[in-house]
Amino acid sequence: MSTIRVDVVSAEQSIFSGEAKFVALPGESGELGILRGHTPLITRIRPGSVRIEKADGDEEFVFVAGGYLEVQPDRVTVLADTAIRGHDLDEAKATEAKKRAEEAMQNRTSDFDMALAQSEFAVAAAQLAAIARFRRKK
């Protein structure tokens, strides 16, 4: 099977760079699956898991807290707001962040506070879902 070049980067660092058979990630309108030869595409991505099936058959999981995706026929670039390798995810921190966001939604003082709390809640919930997915694949 032919491969596609995949780069996952955040503002802090490069998280993954290598060849892959397949990439799946949460696009703005739903889950996207990308193989070599995919039609060019630029889209926003939602918080969630990026699953990379590497050329050797192993899988790599990366949590992204949103960002942008660029697809070319031979290359995939994920520009993430925040990106964390699956094995580096911290369930206790994600649970605490979700709890804080829920409390902030209940105690909001403005529409801006509510929108910020909802965004933080969505990221924390997606991170917990990514942790569950990563554990199932171990």
UniProtKB/TrEMBL annotation:
Similarity annotation: Belongs to the ATPase epsilon chain family.
Ranges of residues in domain ATP synthase epsilon subunit C-terminal: 88-131
Function summary: Produces ATP from ADP in the presence of a proton gradient across the membrane.
Gene Ontology terms, MF aspect: ATP binding; proton-transporting ATP synthase activity, rotational mechanism
GO cellular component, one term: plasma membrane
Superkingdom of origin: Bacteria
Quaternary state and interactors: F-type ATPases have 2 components, CF(1) - the catalytic core - and CF(0) - the membrane proton channel. CF(1) has five subunits: alpha(3), beta(3), gamma(1), delta(1), epsilon(1). CF(0) has three main subunits: a, b and c.
Keyword entries, A-Z: ATP synthesis, Cell membrane, CF(1), Hydrogen ion transport, Ion transport, Membrane, Transport
Principal subcellular localisation of the protein: membrane
Listed NCBIfam families: ATP_synt_epsi, PRK00571.1-4, PRK13442.1
Protein name per UniProt: ATP synthase epsilon chain
Species of origin: Polynucleobacter sphagniphilus
Domain annotation ATP synthase F1 complex delta/epsilon subunit N-terminal: ranges: 5-83
Membrane topology: Peripheral membrane protein
Subcellular location: Cell membrane
UniProt xrefs under InterPro entries: ATP_F1_dsu/esu_C_sf, ATP_synth_F1_dsu/esu, ATP_synth_F1_dsu/esu_N, ATP_synth_F1_esu_C, ATPsynth_dsu/esu_N
